[in-house]
Specification:
CATH superfamily of the largest domain: P-loop containing nucleotide triphosphate hydrolases
Distance between the termini: 34 Å
Shape: globular
Strand order of the largest sheet: 6-7-8-3-9-10
Helix content: 25-40%
Number of helices: 9
CATH topology of the largest domain: Rossmann fold
Strand content: 25-35%
CATH architecture of the largest domain: 3-Layer(aba) Sandwich
CATH class of the largest domain: Alpha Beta
Largest sheet: 6 strands, mixed
Order of helices and strands: EEEHEEHEHHHEHEHEEHH
Radius of gyration: 19 Å
Length: 251
């Protein structure tokens, strides 16, 4: 397996009581790229994502991250290696402010759980870095806003900030645009593009406009198998893809 690829799978397969949700998937994600995983409903995208982040164990196959076999590695250990799943591993506490949420993530990166039992002032050491992260995702004005009171799109930005606090080499985004209006979609798409500098992103996404504008490489799944792969022009002009995905009415 080449150093050109940060994440690779060989023959990745997941079976549930006789039903094969993911079958023999060979995936290679180039270092420093934005790679999208798309397909119609029931194509196996979420199952594949759960296998990559070890929320599910594969029936067969192998997963390699930075040349290291992580097929049997626990999710928390994978996160410590720099492979972080946003909106799952990153936690947003609804009754903490945006600044406090990012401070918790910075504290978690240090791995010292005892800070929770110390005076609140101890956490002030994280304030400068937390404000830098909030600024990087456009949330400077929300630093003192309680998360539950933030607009939906801004909560998603906060979740990305807490993920960035873990200093991931690779981020896995599971439908980052789900439930958003056009204005928030544009903001989060721009944010993803901005934070992709010096890191790799793999995302599951239904919005084809987002996929077309952001992705360097697209892998199309159908019935749990890879149907096609390439840039947007390549996959969008593939007759099988048009029939299986675009013809299905997903957008």
């Amino acid at each position: 397996m080449s150093g050109e690829y940060v994440l690779e799978t060989e023959g990745l397969t997941k079976e549930f009581a006789g039903f094969t949700a993911v079958k023999d998937v060979h995936l290679r994600v180039k270092r420093g790229s934005i790679h999208a995983l798309i397909g119609p409903n029931g194509a196996g995208k979420t199952t594949c994502f759960n296998l990559l982040t070890k929320f599910l164990e594969p029936t067969r196959g192998r997963i390699t991250y930075n040349g290291r076999d992580i097929t049997s590695t626990k999710p928390a250990d994978i996160a410590r290696m720099g492979l972080v799943r946003s909106f799952q591993i990153s936690a947003v506490f609804p009754h903490l402010t945006a600044l406090e949420n990012v401070r918790v993530a910075l504290q978690r990166q240090r791995g010292n759980s005892f800070d929770f039992w110390r005076p609140k002032s101890v956490l002030n050491v994280y304030n400068d870095r937390a404000r830098e992260l909030l600024d990087s995702v456009g949330l400077t004005e929300y630093a003192d806003t309680v998360a539950v009171e933030m607009p939906y799109g801004r909560k998603r930005a906060l979740e990305i900030a807490t993920t960035l606090a873990l200093e991931p080499e690779m981020m896995l985004l599971d439908e980052p645009m789900a439930g958003m209006g056009h204005e928030d979609i544009d903001k989060i798409a721009a944010l993803i593009k901005r934070v992709s500098a010096n890191r790799t992103i793999l995302m599951v996404e239904h919005n084809l406009n987002v996929v077309a504008n952001l992705s360097d490489t697209i892998t199309v799944l159908t019935r749990g198998q890879v149907l096609a792969e390439g840039d947007y022009a390549t996959v969008s002009n593939n007759p099988e893809v048009r029939q299986a995905y675009m013809g299905a009415g997903d957008a």
